[in-house]
């Protein structure tokens, strides 16, 4: 029952509480070095790839206006969408496979959010100092020193974000053209928009939102548990060995004090980029960066205890059972992954260099030209190679079937789609009325020692119409 004072001043119920800022402490260890190496490699690939050329073309360029996608010297067109779908399926199954095998390796070492956040944290440490110094600075009043450090950090963040946005657009517009146009103030409106948009997204996500993206925005954290089981390799705290926790001197005997190996130093919490306590068990906020392992091993070394109080392990191993690395779901994921990779390889190397689609002319099924019946068609020829193709046409399937036009070879530019009208003719008395199956062949015509040679490039199936009373 409420008192009169409580009735006059009802308690305010807050539906949202602002999360406190996380100040991750810098760590040194084998997993930290691995994260740094991964970050350097991935960032190097991102920022260098647009500048590397192969055969005069960027090794990675998504040329949307020309509908061409250049990847490592290979060119893909919209007709190759099936292969893009296969690549996406391979990426998804790979994520499932590695998650079931070793937890959130993607999140801890390769996710763009993790990689760019590491860079922004590094710039923050360089300009504002170590963890404790940054905390004191944020809590203190504004001084000339604080303004200088904050301004320097913001300058680096904004500069790096803008260059990230420019690089992102450089995967769609040749960067060797984009950068000069930027300095000449000749960038198009869309190029400016996407450079600023991606730069702002990098600045906001890696500079301010950080762990909030992993906790609340990333869907992977929500469905990862469906891929975990008792034998998945995850970062865990050994409760049996660490509890009960408590502070003690370095030379104290933990058994005599009735304590476990955890000395309650809070180092694992201080280094966590998402601000969780790994000792509370596996949590969706854990991105498996292994910073807690490095700091705990460092503390164990100082105390003279064996390493591994926090380690990569499995739930079954923590309970004294023998872990099973090779288990049915691993074999299922691996089998599906290998099948998709094999299918992609077969489709990629088995695709035709030239593709043809044959469409009947809808304006006229046929026309008479003396004693010849003519059928008009429209051919859509796609050249998937990096060189120009000189081709000619032949028709097979009916005796006496000939190509009326074009009778000379035509040129199809590299990576181009050419629409050509083709007319076929057949003697009126060659076959009875109806639709008859035929093939239009695309032959490659080259010249060697003044002698023409031809090779079959593509075949298009269609039908030739013979009227009842020609």
Describe the structure.
With 470 residues, the chain is α+β, with helices and mostly antiparallel strands. It folds into 2 domains: 19-351, no CATH class; 354-466, Sandwich (Immunoglobulin-like), CATH 2.60.40. 42% of the residues lie in helices and 22% in strands. It contains 17 helices and 16 strands. The protein has helices spanning 4-8, 30-48, 81-102, 105-110, 112-128, 131-139, 144-169, 175-183, 189-209, 211-217, 220-223, 239-242, 254-257, 267-270, 291-303, 315-318, 328-350; strands at residues 53-54, 57-58, 60-63, 68-71, 74-76, 234-237, 310-313, 354-360, 367-369, 372-383, 389-396, 402-405, 410-412, 417-427, 434-448, 451-466. Strands 8, 9, 10, 12 and 14 form a 5-stranded antiparallel sheet that branches. It has a 4-stranded antiparallel sheet with strand order 13-11-15-16, with no helix packed on it. The longest helix has 26 residues, at 144-169. The radius of gyration is 33 Å and the shape is elongated.
Summarize the structure.
The chain has 470 residues and is an alpha+beta fold. It folds into 2 domains: 19-351, no CATH class; 354-466, Immunoglobulin-like (Sandwich), CATH 2.60.40. Helix content is 42%, strand content 22%.
Overall tally of domains: 2
Shape: elongated
Rounded mean pLDDT score: 88
Strand content is 15-25%
Q: Helical amount among residues, as a percent range?
A: 40-55%
Low-pLDDT parts are 447-452
Enumerate how many helices there are, as a single number: 17
Radius of gyration: 33 Å
Helix and strand composition category = alpha+beta
Number of strands: 16
Largest sheet: 5 strands, antiparallel
Measure the end-to-end span: 102 Å
